[in-house]
Amino acid sequence: MVSKATQKMHDIGYVPPKETWTPIDEALYGVDTLFRLPKEKTDELRFNAIKHAFNYWYEESKWYHMYCNEFDFSPTSLKTYGDLDKVPLISHRFFKAYLEGQEFVNWLMNISINKVDRPKIKKQNPTMDDLIDVFADKGIMAVYSSGTSGRFSFIPKDQTTFMRSQYALGKMGISEMLEHWYDDSAYAYLCGPNPSKTNMWVGKVVKLMDDVYEDVQYAIDRQITTQLMRVSNGDIRGLSDAVMAAAMQLMGTSKKITGNVINWLEEREKAGDRVFIAEAPFIMRRVMDELEKQDRTFDFGEKGAIITGGGWKLHDTEEMPLKEFRDLAEKTLGIPHENNVDLYTMVESNWHALQCPEGHYLHLPPTLVYPMVLDENHNKMDWGETGRFAFIDHMANSYPGAMITGDMVTLLEECPACGRTGPVLEPNVRRMTGEEVRGCAEEMRKLMDDQTPELLHDLVCTPDRARMPMMLLDREEN
Ligand SMILES: [Zn+2]
Q: What is this structure's pTM?
């Protein structure tokens, strides 16, 4: 028996025909539930999917192949479940080590597994946004992080990768965590950019909302470009909420948005509609602060649900603790804690983690990701320990998805609060350290003028395991 939301995604064509499925698709589309499978079944589905994906990355990505050779690791090395810990991982910094202009095209084409024709660049000095558009025409989304460290991470995602990621989000969110709540007659307000008008991952990732709700309003319905992010990034680098806030200021829309959301809430309450509010918590917070100031409240109760987007606030030192945020939402909007959960996603991943309504732990979908926590020497740590987050993401079809992130997490074998199966992260995910990333960006800037910037960048600020691919890329011809 599949849920209403899963049925809906099937009906509107999110699921490829069954006869084309690989073990990767089996682990995603072939399961009735992500969080209630027996462990043996989960492990089997996941192992087969990773084996399939790794083989594909190894065969199709020249640089990853060479990188794996350095570790003496090949598809035949992946025999048992325990071998998953040895899959060569790539540092997230690797995806920041790009140059601009024509060099960016070479870099992205090198990283990408998909064989696309070299895009023709008509402009003399193309901006990053021009280049993003050119790749979009070739079927490659160059999606990027919110650039809070002063530099974006770019990942090439093809349609297959993106659709898997969209289905995963719907399956986790409205089909499982909020299954008790979801109804496609609900009205949605997206407190962020229109996903069709940005390639910034945290904005793009909620594209499926357009398909699963009666109506979707966007707080920011204009193009959000790297240029805009860069301008707004100016002096307040490091605070991702602040970055977005500054972007809104630039657009002169900040005040208007708060008013728009309040008007919308008013109409929806009058009509007795179900409401779904998603994404940037700082926009919602402004709305709720304004309501408090006006001494007004709404009472949506069970008719309301909120999913905040974790990626919007990872850097924000003045971030409101999520518990206080939920208290405020309950007080001003009448939306209960169980219908108010946080999403953790990043440009480097296609799976997502979502809080459970019961305990607000971040659940990792067990058939879709193999998570690890590493110490400073990149050795795997035990359950319950805090360290650098790494994972194997077999849904990545256009680049190798074995990643070491810049996030600090505590990984638990199971949720202390609910009966769902699979590992969870404690809700307080943090960037490793701001200084470290910033330092790297500074170095990058200096090295930009150098003859062999990739190589130097790599030696200066990339952790050991990521050195190889940069050096190899440097040697690649095209
Ligand atoms: Zn839980």
A: 0.87
